Structures are given as structure tokens and as C-alpha cells.
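Appendix C: a fully annotated inverse folding record. The material below is reproduced so that readers can follow the format used throughout the book. The structure is listed first as C-alpha cells, followed by the designed sequence.
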């Protein structure tokens, strides 16, 4: 049995249209938002607006708030940009999120899922930690990071 592939994507510096085209081009059927708060200063990326834009493209939307980075960890990371510290703190948080991980695993088993967060680089984003945990649990095989075109200038 082949395990499903999990996709990840960040919207940092991506125009909404290009972001949506990237998802559509690879056949994403469900975008799972892994932000603790599904709000954005970027037009079109807050929960309601994004959900509607995705629906127009035939893509579902699910916000799994429990998989977001807890505020204290996020705040510390913004101050020192120490990803190793974020990774350690987030791993402890993730260890308490079995129900959300189970739900995500079930979604990935039946849909073409992309995990969403802000950061363009998955290596400095908690979504890579979620993907890694799902691989450890044997719920996904490959993990592919999508890179929508970035705004110029």
C-alpha cells in the first residue's frame, strides 16, 4: 500500500491568484490551515475570504487551529528567530494534539491535502514539523512543498 503524499504551502509574498493557481495545478482538493489564528493582514488570506476563494476553485477549506503554533512560542520566535527553540516548544505542543493529528491523517487518506501557513520556506515553519510527525506516525509517505510565484519588488 502506498501512503498518500502530503503537500505544504506558505503564502508569504504570494499574490492570491498565483497561490490559488498553484494549488489547482497540482490537484489539491482540501487546504488545511495550520495557523493558530486564521487571520492575515494580507488581503484574501483570512479564514472567510480564503475559504470563499478556494470554494470558487473547487477546493475545500479546513482550519485545524489545534495544530497552530501557540502564542507564547510564536512570540518568542518573532523576537529571536531561533527555529531550534520553536521546534522544541512546538514538538511538546504537537505531542498533546493526537486528535487533531488523527483528523489530519484521515483527511490526507481521502483528499489531496495541502497544509497552509504563512512562511514561504517550510524549513522555518511549523508546517514542516506537522508533516514530519505525520510521516513518523506512518500516515503519509512523501511530503512536497509547493512554491507559488512570489510578488516582485
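Designed amino acids, in order:
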Amino acid at each position: 500500500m502506498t501512503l498518500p503524499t502530503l503537500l505544504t504551502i506558505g503564502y508569504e509574498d504570494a499574490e492570491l491568484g498565483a497561490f490559488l493557481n498553484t494549488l489547482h495545478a497540482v490537484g489539491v482538493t482540501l487546504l488545511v490551515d495550520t495557523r493558530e489564528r486564521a487571520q492575515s493582514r494580507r488581503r484574501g488570506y483570512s479564514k472567510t475570504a480564503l475559504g470563499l476563494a478556494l470554494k470558487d476553485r473547487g477546493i475545500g477549506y479546513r482550519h485545524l487551529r489545534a495544530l497552530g503554533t501557540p502564542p507564547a512560542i510564536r512570540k518568542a520566535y518573532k523576537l529571536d528567530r531561533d527555529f531550534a527553540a520553536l521546534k522544541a516548544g512546538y514538538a511538546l505542543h504537537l505531542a498533546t494534539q493526537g486528535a487533531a493529528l488523527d483528523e489530519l491523517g484521515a483527511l490526507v487518506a481521502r483528499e489531496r491535502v495541502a497544509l497552509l501557513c504563512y512562511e514561504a520556506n517550510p524549513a522555518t515553519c511549523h508546517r514542516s514539523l506537522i508533516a514530519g510527525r505525520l510521516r513518523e506516525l506512518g500516515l503519509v509517505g512523501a511530503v512536497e512543498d509547493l512554491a507559488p510565484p512570489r510578488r516582485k519588488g
